[in-house]
Structure formats: C-alpha cells, structure tokens
Amino acid sequence: MAKIFCIANQKGGVGKTTTTVNLAAGLAKIGQRVLLVDLDPQGNATMGSGVDKRSLALSVYDVLLGTAAVKEAAVLSEKCGYWVLGANRELAGAEVELVELEQRDKRLKAALAAVDADYDFVLVDCPPSLSLLTLNGLCAAHGVVVPMQCEYFALEGLADLVNTIKQVHANLNPDLQIIGLLRVMFDPRMTLQQQVSDQLNGHFGDKVFATIIPRNVRLAEAPSYGLPGVVFDPSARGSKAFIEFAQEMVARVRKASESGG
C-alpha cells in the first residue's frame, strides 16, 4: 500500500518544491518506488524532476477531470528514478471546472486508489494557497510533511496550516495528520534560527524530524538544470541531508505501520 504525503505550507517561498523533488529523489536512491504528483499550476516540481511540462501529452489536470488514469498520465523521470504526474498551465483552469463536478475534493484520492500497489510513496507538491487543488491533496493524503524555515513569521504560518489540517481531518479525511516538520534552509550561525528551532522542538517534540536541511547553494542551483539537488550534486551537504531525510522518513513510516498507526 502506497503511503501518500502532501508537502504543504500556506506560506510561499519555504522550499516546498525543493523538499518534494529532493525527497522523491532521495527515496528513489534508497530503493523506494515513488510517484511525485505536481498540484501546482506553475509546474515547478515537474520541471525540477527533469520533465518538460510543455511537452506533457497528459497531466494531473486530465486525471482530476477524469479523462485519464494515473497510469496513462504518469511519466518516468529516468535521470531521477521516480515517476511524475506532471502539471502545467492547464491546471490553473481546473479550479473552475472542478467546482461543477461530483466529489470535487476527492478526485485525486479516487485516481490514486487505482495505483495503490504500484508505489511505496506518493508525494504531492501543493500550491501555497488553500485552494481546491490543495484540498484534493489533503483529502488524498495519509499525512502532511511541513517544510519550514526557522523564522518567526514561519511560526505564524504554521498555526494557520495546523488549523487547516484539523478542519480537513474533522470534516473530510480522518486519516490526515501532521507527519512531521522539516527544518529547511537552516543556518546554524544565526542565533534566531537556533532559538526558533529549539521552540519547535519544545512545542512539537517528536513531530519535528531529526534531519535538518542546511542552506546550500548547490540545492538552489539544481532547479535551473531541471534536476533535484540529490541527482545534480549528490556530494553536496544539502543533498546528503535529503538522503538522510529519506531514510528517516522510511523508518518513521515503518515504525508507524508496526505500531498500527
């Protein structure tokens, strides 16, 4: 059974897409079968996985509208070792079209049920706004991974996201929970970041992943080459951190399933 995780944060610019593509590549490197679902009309996770969004014959848009199955629309990123259900500009129009449809917030969940046995992990890159697209991601997911910078404004955004997740959990998806908070773009030389990191640990305890992703130039450069950092420069500090994070993620999922969680 595939474990489906949304990578979400209502604050923009926190490294959601960087986290999604590098976690996907990290999981693939350690032998996991991975599908990345790009739910952002900008298609950055698609391009960052070495897939040209402009040449997609079928995309997540077709899957949400029910005119294509995941198996037909997903493409293998050979360089990265995982499958991509890509997005392009067409997806921006899906919001309007979905409003008219039955079960409009559970379309992705229904589509992914058909490929449940084909993958170990499905990672969903959500747009920063709480839209019908994000809602589809949250309704399909078992849990949410929250990448966040250790800054005070990030803490405010986190409170909003936690409330959203609670509402979706109560009304639409009783399986949904926060799997963990991932500290990204971390610079240990900044006292404030260390303080916020300590606050997160104090408040959220074991919901905070042990792995910390450092601020790293190579990770930032990688998207311009259409690759995750883990593939672009495996020896970079940021890439190594994402491999560690992938291993921690597998261990956490295994532990949860053994304890019946």
Mind explaining what this structure looks like?
The protein is α/β, with parallel strands linked by helices and 261 residues long. The chain has helices at residues 16-29, 44-47, 60-65, 70-73, 90-99, 107-113, 132-140, 152-171, 191-204, 217-221, 229-232, 237-258; strands at 3-7, 34-38, 75-77, 82-85, 121-125, 143-148, 178-186, 208-214. It has an eight-stranded mixed beta sheet with strand order 3-4-2-5-1-6-7-8, with helices on both faces. The longest helix has 22 residues, at 237-258.
Concise structural overview:
This protein is an alpha/beta fold. The chain is built from twelve helices and eight strands. The chain has an eight-stranded mixed β-sheet with strand order 3-4-2-5-1-6-7-8, with helices on both faces.
Q: Mind describing the biggest β-sheet? A: 8 strands, mixed
**Based on DSSP secondary structure assignment, what is the total number of beta strands?**
8
Number of helices: 12
Following the backbone from N to C, one meets helices and strands in this order, namely EHEHHHEEHHEHEHEHEHHH
The secondary structure category is: alpha/beta
Q: Calculate the terminal CA-CA distance, rounded to whole Å.
A: 14 Å
Would you identify the regions where 5 or more consecutive residues have pLDDT less than 50? none
What is the helix fraction of residues, given as a range? Answer: 40-55%
Shape: globular
Mean pLDDT: 93
Measured by DSSP, the beta-strand proportion falls in 15-25%
Strand order of the largest sheet: 3-4-2-5-1-6-7-8
Gyration radius (Cα, Å) is 17 Å
